[in-house]
């Protein structure tokens, strides 16, 4: 399984970016598709999740600014990030997780998002 993350870059505070995570397999095979991020010197944190039923969950720090979505036909998950601020600067990772047997947990390579003030 491969997860290819893209869409990162440099943006000014208040701007927007859309990340994409393209999977090499049917994303319905996973219970959740997730976006994590890791800022310099900090632990990796869960930013947003979306289930096969399209239920979503967000970290408090991004609620109302970020939107996770999925295109099942393209096996791709998106993270629309609006009103970015410097605290959003991090490497963003795509994750695919299955909790029912056979359990699985796959990670993409990460894409860097840098927000300048």
Describe the structure.
With 117 residues, the chain is mainly beta. The chain is built from no helices and eleven strands. The protein has strands at 3-6, 9-12, 17-23, 32-38, 45-51, 56-58, 66-71, 76-81, 90-98, 104-107, 111-116. It is globular and about 45 Å long. The N and C termini lie far apart (37 Å).
- Shape, per Cα inertia axes: globular
- How far the N terminus sits from the C terminus, by CA atoms, comes to 37 Å
The helix-and-strand class reads: mainly beta
User: Quick one: how many beta strands?
Assistant: 11
Uncertain segments of ≥5 residues (pLDDT<50)?
none
List the helices and strands and how they pair.
Elements: E1 3-6, E2 9-12, E3 17-23, E4 32-38, E5 45-51, E6 56-58, E7 66-71, E8 76-81, E9 90-98, E10 104-107, E11 111-116
Parallel strand pairs: 2-11
Antiparallel strand pairs: 1-3, 3-8, 4-5, 4-9, 5-6, 7-8, 9-10, 9-11
